[in-house]
Give the backbone structure.
Amino acid sequence: MTEPNSRLKALLSLIDMSLENQRSILIELNSLLADCTQDLFDLGIKFENAGLLEKLLIQIIKHNLSIATLSKGSYIKIRENELMMDDLTAVYSIARLQIETFVNLSYLFFLEFEISQELRISIYKIQGLNQQISLTSKHSKKFEPVAKMRNELAEELKKLRNLSEFKLASKKEKTKYTKPRYARLKKPDEIYDMIKIGDLSKTHSLYSNHIHSEYISIRQLNSAIQNTEQISNSISTVIILCSRITSLVITNFTSKYEIENNSFSKKSDILGEKIDALNKMYGK
């Protein structure tokens, strides 16, 4: 198949906004990401925090699977009649998680900027452990799960204090590092600019609003019952976002860890063109 034909077929597929087609594209991308993730293990690629990278990649894969499943809807039987139900709130909820996972993955592993990767990951872990430990105040420090977390925190703090950036930091900065309020040292808007996926902040806020506002969810449910096509279009839009995220993750991941010549190289020409097109979509 010639390259122009592959590109044309890829573009025609991407502009087909039907839910079934967009779901098919996401599933195809997700399978490729899963294969590329498996390459890390098969090739014996080892580095510090490889386990964290793998967990974040698996989160991306699982979120895609959940959204693909939810997009098919489900039936409920009411007085011998079957009614199709689409849970758009659940789709938005997982899409919001997908955005957050993508931001964390990019911030911790893919982006290059003035803060070292070691410091970023250390702060990310310390903030998470502090948050989790704070929820266990009613348990004894010797309670096994609590003790395990506290030991892990102590180990992370030890690693942090050995970093040159920590040693050169001011007293105020050291306090910010050992007791971080946030998991990231960069604001989301700054990270969006570096990711080159366009502005995700409004999309994230929209999904958050649907999740946290009971009234908006109720209005949405009423709309879903009255206009199923509108709901299908909304879910299709979410799936396109997840495809864009997955495409960028595949590209950044395989490039960063130099595994383009494995599963990534075996993708079809059409899928390769889809990835190129998705990566350019709304990018800065």
Summary: The beta strands are 74-78, 81-85. The first strand starts at residue 74 and ends at 78.
